Amino acid sequence: MNDDETLTAYHEAGHAVVAYVLGGDVRSMQLGGEADDWLPDRFGECRIAWGRVDPESDWQRQREVLAILAGPVAEMVYRGERPSPGQYGPWNDDWTRAMAICESFVPDPQQQLKLLEQTIEYLTKHLKSECCWAAVAALADELLAHETLDDDQTSNVLSFWLG
Fold it and tell me: 0.85 exceeded by the pTM?
């Protein structure tokens, strides 16, 4: 099944699983996005809180890039395609945000692209692992069933599959 809602659920679940593994707190997830002036139109939403962090920390920037690109990568894995988020319109916002963060700690554009490609390969490998993919699929199923998940619902699924 490759309908838009299912793809969106896997996309948002990818963001959530990787953020959780990297220490983020998944506050909520939803299919469809709330209309607002400061975010682009979107098919779904995953809200992540990182806690107190130094915005200048390279580790924090790396965590954010991983979590941002995990959505498109999870969707591509679900589709059975080779992940290439920068070349697909609906993921333009994710790709643009990842590039902007990358620019803040890698000045050379060619090195930025190389880093993002390596990040995509890394995410593809890890999201395909049995425990991560089970967590992605379970969270996507919950999101499809309920359309909106709060922090308790996401935490229950993630802690069950990822400990």
Answer: yes
pLDDT confidence band for 138 (50 / 70 / 90): very high
pLDDT tens, 31-67? 975 545 544 445 789 999 998 877 678 888 899 999 9
- Nearest CA-CA partner of 16 in 120, 163, 160, 155: 155
Within the chain, what is the greatest distance between any pair of CA atoms? Answer: 44
Q: Structural domain tally of the chain?
A: 1
**Structural domain that includes position 42:** 4-162
46, 15 Cβ separation under 8 angstroms: yes
The CATH code of the domain that includes 112 is 1.20.58.760
Q: What six digits make up the tokens of 8?
A: 């969106």
% helix, strand, coil for the chain, step of 5: 65, 10, 25
To which residue do tokens 């999101």 refer? Answer: 143
- CA separation (Å) from 51 to 20, 66, 77, 104, 126? 12, 17, 29, 20, 24
**78-100 average pLDDT score:** 78
How far apart CA 35 and CA 161 sit, in angstroms, is 32
